[in-house]
Amino acid sequence: QVHVVEAGGGLVQPGGSLRLSCQASGFTFSSSAMAWYRQAPGKQRELVATITSGGVTNYADSVKGRFAISRDNAKYTVSLQMNSLKPEDTAVYYCKKPGLREYWGQGTQVTVSS
Fold it and tell me: Which residue from 2, 24, 69, 91 lies 20 to 30 Å from 75 (Cα-Cα)?
């Protein structure tokens, strides 16, 4: 059974950093692309970053140069390093395994506030 579980959210001041992690299980992780999304209150869920099975990354314009997605195939994890955080980064962050059937985690709250 496929599972993806996020961790690492919290409260951080503007300009600070957080590292989110997503623990996956139940599928061949090394063969799968992975993605991070976020959803702010009152807004639609949006794509933040993706990483292919080969490690090619892509980012939303709003986070380019500040966020970095990475993966560890041996540990079945995908991470999102978030630097220079802004109040507008406040959202629930979700990990997703894309594919014919998508699998989402439960989300982790990130709040950027002074």
Answer: 91
Cα distances (Å, whole numbers) of residue 36 to 22, 70, 107, 112: 9, 11, 10, 18
Are the CB atoms for 5 and 13 separated by under 8 Å?
no
Summarised one tens digit per residue, pLDDT across range 79-112 is 999 999 999 999 999 999 999 999 999 999 999 9
List, as own/partner pairs, every contact residues 58-67 make where C-beta atoms lie below 8 angstroms and the sequence separation is at least 24, other chains included. Answer: 62/88, 63/89
Please give the helix or strand (H or E) that residue 25 lies within, else none: strand 18-25
What is the mean predicted confidence (pLDDT) over 62-71?
Answer: 98
